[in-house]
User: Fold this.
Amino acid sequence: MKVAIQGELGSFSHEALRQLIPQAKVVPCANSAQVFDLVVKRGVDAAVIPIENSLAGPVSEHFDLLLSRPVVIEREFYLRIAHTLIASTGVSFSAVRRVYSHPVALGQCVEFFRANPNIVPVPFYDTAGSVKHVIEAGLRDAAAIAGAQAAKVYGGRILRRGLEDDKQNFTRFFVIRPAAAGRRLPKGGNKTSIAFALKNLPGVLFRALSVFALRDIDLSKIESRPMRGRPWEYVFCVDLLRGSDEAAENALRHLGEVAEFVKVLGVYPAAQRAPQGKLESAEPKARK
Assistant:
């Protein structure tokens, strides 16, 4: 089974894939559009994509690609994000003057940089890619912030663990597959992701959301995304805590009466989250 990810081997997407589909062959991609195109063209069997982080918020590009590409969400997964400081073998912490990583990761380790003002953060395109760069370039005064898996993949040395400011740091991942034309919504899931657009009429959002309230369907998430080519118009992305049962299907039919369009992004089993205390103690705190 071939599964695509965006980014390098050793990234958090790679770690999520290892936990979701351990035996899969990983297909790293340079950008997100390439990941989705491989899925649509069936160059891979599936893809694992991050969709939102509990601190940084949604991955907007991936929401837009879910809307524009014929793919479906098959599964979701929450990954605890633990940042480590990785350098080449033989490099000591005292020698580090630059730290490379993705801007989001750097922004989640502010206290580390505040405690070490002699170390300069350097934005890079990918967390695991920053480790690859530091190791392959043989940098002796630099390190990278990434997951511990990246150290194993590139032969790096972990200098510090638990650099993240907030230990309750999670990323939600989706497993996506190509959508089959005419395929009915799958049974057995207990969560549904949809997207819809509304006409600009008074009270139309209230009417749209009431189709769920009238049937006691709980919404766990709602956000809006700009519509491409239509300035100041928006698509609403909503998660329902309901599978494909009669009430949900009636709600979606009712929604279709007031919406310009409704797209079901996927019906899937809701991911289980471990207790917070257990996750908080998963990594030791970073030393100053």
Residues 84-166 form a domain with the D-Maltodextrin-Binding Protein; domain 2 fold (CATH 3.40.190.10). DSSP finds ten helices and 15 strands in the chain. Residues 246-258 form the longest helix (13 residues).
